């Protein structure tokens, strides 16, 4: 049903748009910021959004991201509040299964005690999973709803937060800050710098060491954020391309969606695992 | 791909969700799971203990049963012995009683014989005297004769 709604919207749009424009429009964010004349408002078109510079927000992405985060928080909080040590009910069982899965992943990788890392891993896994799962929603459904509700046929509205590099890099930068924080906390400033400067070739080769270690360190957040973004962005792009097939799109959509059912949890899992690995490296003495 | 303040917004949201999860989701879930683990461990331990207790009880039972059997055998043995003893005693008593009765009877018979003899002796003496009186017709010296007859009777 949702698919056909998307199809309808697509056909409605097709009369006024070329295929390229259709895809371009679907890759635009609902951007809120200060326009060239100094007024705060929503940007019309990709160029206007780009002109707003750094101090602008992707309202659609932040909205979905925070909304999905709240869903995660509310569900887990309600289960945690009523969690019994007796025989768990069906839903508590499921939550506990997720919980134990994350806890086992952390325990296998992260040696030592840290009150932050397991809740962090759980949040990342569930939140990224939910954000990725938005990819399954038909690509035209929410844009069509947004256009209908706002009455603006040109309004840009995207639903998969992890297809926005701002969202993924926001998380990976947070994790990068945690890496730096724990490196300094565990090894001290000197220890952290020594690890950058004196490894792997010893103090005499200091410039080479820096040349290797600094990019290695900086590559962590970049690769972490861009991997998630790239996977989901590519996935969404393929969905958009399939949406252009017209009448034949349904079976193809189904195949790609089935494949994406693997990608969605896998990318969430990879993001979580790499976070754990990076933080365990930060907390270990070499 | 334009980087903008969405990044900062996401970082703040991320920090908030992690903090919330750490503060309000993780502790109660961990507590519930740990408590359940403890309950399961306690349950298993109790089951183990109960099994051991059962084993012990069964051992005690079999021991008591064995003891009871030994006791029963002892009691039966004793009873049998006592029964034989009673029978034996009865037999002995009977024999003794019989012996005594026989002895008594014998003594009585002896006495009876003696008495009969005495009686007979007296009668014989008087018959003899009477006989002698008849023979002699007249009494010569009754006293002397009595002496003779008494001697005669005694010799009988």
From TrEMBL, chain B:
Family: Belongs to the ATPase B chain family.
Keywords of the record: ATP synthesis, Cell inner membrane, Cell membrane, CF(0), Hydrogen ion transport, Hydrolase, Ion transport, Membrane, Transmembrane, Transmembrane helix, Transport
Bilayer topology: Single-pass membrane protein
Alphabetical list of Gene3D superfamilies matching this protein: F1F0 ATP synthase subunit B, membrane domain
Record keyword Zinc present: no
Location(s), subcellular: Cell membrane; Endomembrane system
InterPro entries given in the database record: ATP_synth_B-like_membr_sf, ATP_synth_b/b'su_bac/chlpt, ATP_synth_F0_bsu_bac, ATP_synthase_B_chain
Regions crossing the membrane: 7-26
Tree of life domain: Bacteria
Coiled-coil annotated residue ranges, if any: none
Assigned GO CC terms: endomembrane system; plasma membrane; proton-transporting ATP synthase complex
Primary role: F(1)F(0) ATP synthase produces ATP from ADP in the presence of a proton or sodium gradient. F-type ATPases consist of two structural domains, F(1) containing the extramembraneous catalytic core and F(0) containing the membrane proton channel, linked together by a central stalk and a peripheral stalk. During catalysis, ATP synthesis in the catalytic domain of F(1) is coupled via a rotary mechanism of the central stalk subunits to proton translocation.
Oligomeric and partner information: F-type ATPases have 2 components, F(1) - the catalytic core - and F(0) - the membrane proton channel. F(1) has five subunits: alpha(3), beta(3), gamma(1), delta(1), epsilon(1). F(0) has four main subunits: a(1), b(2) and c(10-14). The alpha and beta chains form an alternating ring which encloses part of the gamma chain. F(1) is attached to F(0) by a central stalk formed by the gamma and epsilon chains, while a peripheral stalk is formed by the delta and b chains.
Species: SAR86 cluster bacterium
SUPFAM superfamilies: F1F0 ATP synthase subunit B, membrane domain
GO MF annotation list: hydrolase activity; proton-transporting ATP synthase activity, rotational mechanism; proton-transporting ATPase activity, rotational mechanism
Chain's gene name: atpF
Name of the molecule in the record: ATP synthase subunit b
